[in-house]
Batch of 4 targets.
Target 1
Amino acid sequence: MAISNRYDFVLLFDVKDGNPNGDPDAGNLPRIDAETGRGLVTDVCLKRKVRNFVGLVKSEQPPYEIYVKEKAVLNKTHERAYVAIGAEDLLKGEDKKRKGGDKVDEARQWMCSNFFDVRTFGAVMSTGVNCGQVRGPVQLTFARSIDPIVSSEHSITRMAVTTEKEAENQSGDNRTMGRKFTVPYGLYMAHGFVSANLADQTGFNEDDLTLLWQALSSMFEHDRSAARGLMATRGLYVFKHDSKLGNASAHDLFDRVDVKKIARGPARQFSDYQVQINEQNMPDGVKLQRVLG
């Protein structure tokens, strides 16, 4: 059964000596708001980490398969749906593209039932054989750092070369120079929304919701790399509404989470900040759940 309550949430995470989300259009520099200097992490980046976590803990087994994943061929997955619902005859012939007819809704439902990320974030599945489109009940904003960040550039050396020609050019020295970009420290805040009305359409249920909170709390623990440095979720504050439509505006609830720097100099660790939650005079029908923090 789908969830019957609306949720709004605030996610806090930090990075130390790492690049939380490189921008391929800027030489993989950490993403930044050019006007304010504050760091950015895209919603797509955060969803990727949630997908990776769920795929890891659930071993990619239905109903927790992952639709958008590394090396996936999406149209092949659409064809799986038609085979599963017994409509494989629609896959025959050269004109199968975008076909589906009255089976599109059934194929879309199969995708929702088997793939966690389709059920959660939605998907456009109309390429190739048509499995329709799904608007997901869970949405995330870009994460933005509390304060401006500094992008540090480091020269790095590899004691090896790729080809024999490179070795000859260096007379056997065999060194390769490179660059690495890091943020010395940044504390980021993202906001999220869970719609009970859209959950009705995808079948997003209480077990899925629990798994989402688990993923947001622990996703950085299983996403280590030399480029990302030290990253961790520092807070997950969930506002639960008593109704499907909600009992208060999301922005009013988000304003109750206040993060301030208390260090005199540049922030270099989480304890350089103070997180205060205003739980006084909470709107009727709204409860705060501190999942983490």
Note: The first strand starts at residue 7 and ends at 18.
Target 2
Amino acid sequence: MRFGYWLVHSVVRLTLTVIAGFKVIGKDNLPPTGSVIVASNHIAFLDPPVIAVSLYREANFAAKMELFKNPIVSRLITYLNAFPVNRSGLDMAALRKSLEALNSNGVLIIFPEGTRSRIGEMLPFKRGIGYFVTKTKAAVLPLYIKGTNTFKKNLFKRGAITVRIGESIHGLADRFTGDDRYERISEEIRKAIVRLKNQAD
């Protein structure tokens, strides 16, 4: 890891451990090399940095451009390899940045729901993650995050924020063909995250 990334990674992880009993299960499931899409449920704005510090490899993620207007938040997430995305439409710059990360054997965090769920259940997955898998042949690492939306009520309790990482999924791009392959890949990933949710609940 680069020094700046490592420094922020360590500080954020230590802070989460102290105030939220931060716990990561299955951290060794992340492939040590190669392009990887980390696919996660999404329940709070804290999810991207929390997931980033759950991984032992540098990760990249898109963050809504409004977050970059706050100088403190902007500096923090930029150190963690965040890049801005305009969610009002197709952001070609963010798309290119995402593909660039994967095509250079990097790690990219994606929230296939497309937005935060506020109903306690995962929303339907968008087909976009199927596009990224097909385009880059990246492995997929399913991840389930719990507690980022309620941790203020559970400060200093062990496991107030928990990240559960499943086994990586390889070969999805070659497993599905046809015009609906993006949707089928997305659904396969959703099933893997639901299994992690069932283990956590």
Note: The domain at 3-200 is CATH 3.40.1130.10 (Glycerol-3-phosphate (1)-acyltransferase).
Target 3
Amino acid sequence: MRILFAALRLVVAAGVTAAIIAQLALSISLWSEAGVNLGVYIQNFFSFFTIESNVLTVVVCLVGAVLLLARREGADPTWFNNLRAATATYMIVTGVVYNLLLRGIELPQGTTVPWSNEVLHVVGPLWMLLDWLLAPGRKPLEWRRGILGIIAFPLVWVVYTLVRGPLTADPFKGFDYWYPYPFLNPNLSQNGYLSVAFYVILIAVIIGLTAAGVIWASRRKRAVAA
């Protein structure tokens, strides 16, 4: 079981890494043709919650594979157990939010790598869910500390995004602002930041409920698989 999940984690890490690199390479090509500041746009690229969650997925899969191969039994170290739980939560939320709110939004032809998009928004989230439920090493999380630890990063990310948005121009599209997702852009709604607040609260609820589900799964009797 451990060797199987170690191998699967390595495969997923390679696939997600390839998906990130493929999309970044295409984006850099488009930005270079437009003559924009590559440094700013690369920073924009890694400001997407989807990209950050998938980078964490690569880290968790690689470290998790090493841990599975380095020992025959026992639970994961506490720090890795917490990181794995948080990453699973973020990826599940990424999959839910994308498929509910963003999948229907049409993007300019040729700006995304289709297979990469599916890996980052569907394959990765599904894997992290299955990994958390089935892979060996998981151990119980405390309710209060677990939820607070999981929601800390998304809260910091929202503040970072809303502060950075109006300070970052997007000459590629002709705007004097840049936001990673339409529902966080107050310029796209007549209600401005009120609309943004609604979506932030909605996503916070989704993250909280998902975190609760992740913690509940960790507290089941089969928390540490042999």
Note: The mean pLDDT is 90.
Target 4
Amino acid sequence: MIVKKEIMAGDILLELEDVHMYFGKVAALAGVSLKIRKGEIHSVIGPNGAGKTVMMNCINGLYKPQQGIVLYKGDRINHLKPHERARMGMARTFQKVEVFGGMTVMDNIRLGRHNHYRSGIFSGAVYIGKAKREELEHRQFIEEEIIDLLEIEHIRDKPVGMLPYGLQKRVELGRALALEPELLILDEPLAGLNLEEVEDMARFIIDVNEEPRWQVTCLLVEHDMGVVMDLSDRVFVLNFGNMIMDGTPDDVQQNPEVIKAYLGEEDLYATRK
């Protein structure tokens, strides 16, 4: 059993106001509103096709909602592209692992540092002075903070495409952490993992959320209800693009609409064991 922390309500980091997203005549999101406070692990659950990934895409800029407002740190960001939102401190992992299979673990993670490089074209091209110092600093950060955290020292120089799926998931998480995000969007990080890998990934999420070095706010989309209820400070429930409720894990588990639409009696029992 994962012991969840107690947190005080912080400032709102991310807010959705009446967000609508249509594909033709299909409403993937129908007036969704959500507030995520700094320091939270805020999970999003719902059946397949509920609109969870669409909502994540609207948050990180892959989609632009036809109606509604996305606010980050109090600023409207509807017009910003994904890389611009990344510069503001927003990082993401995906349902299906998005890594560069022919590159090493270290090089994949280094790609996540691109927003932090400040050296000019000339010094970067000849690798002298500021560029060299900057490269060494970034490498030290990756080695001491990310590789140690994710326990992947033994595979740091291996091509990612040759690694088991569970380790590829760690590499993708490491690349997101290399951005040093304030908001980390995790789209089904446990999908396809065995029980041991699920426990490891859940521990990594807790660490990046709670450790003073990181203290990253997490937005988690996940189907594993046991992990969701153990990790989350709040749970947002979607069903066919509509919000059913947003509340504490205990409140969600006791809501008849949530049980009917998604949890079901068997899953509800499993989360309470």
Note: Residues 102-180 form one domain.
